[in-house]
Design goal:
- The structure is a single chain.
- By secondary structure, the chain is mainly alpha-helical.
- The chain has helices at 8-24, 30-37, 43-54; strands at 58-60, 68-70.
- The chain has a two-stranded antiparallel sheet.
- Strand 1 (58-60) and strand 2 form a beta hairpin.
Length: 71
């Protein structure tokens, strides 16, 4: 089943997660995502992650700080 395309903002977040994981050996926290994009509301990262997960690009694991699995 084909995945739904990501919006530009979602693609930027997803690409950052992939880059961060490749560079650091672990995924970023929601706070690190928010800080990277200059968002003051850390909930913004959570909302992006939920939408990206629904589109099938990643899986959120156990609601932990680094619980992001790239699919």
């Amino acid at each position: 089943m084909p995945r739904s395309p990501l919006t530009k903002a979602q693609r930027r977040v997803f690409d950052f997660i992939v880059y961060y994981k490749n560079s650091n050996g672990r995924p970023p926290t929601r706070r690190e995502i928010s800080d990277h994009f200059g968002w003051t509301a850390h909930n913004a990262a959570s909302q992006h992650l939920l939408l990206i997960e629904r589109k099938g690009y990643l899986r959120l694991v156990d609601n932990t700080a680094r619980g992001i699995e790239i699919l």
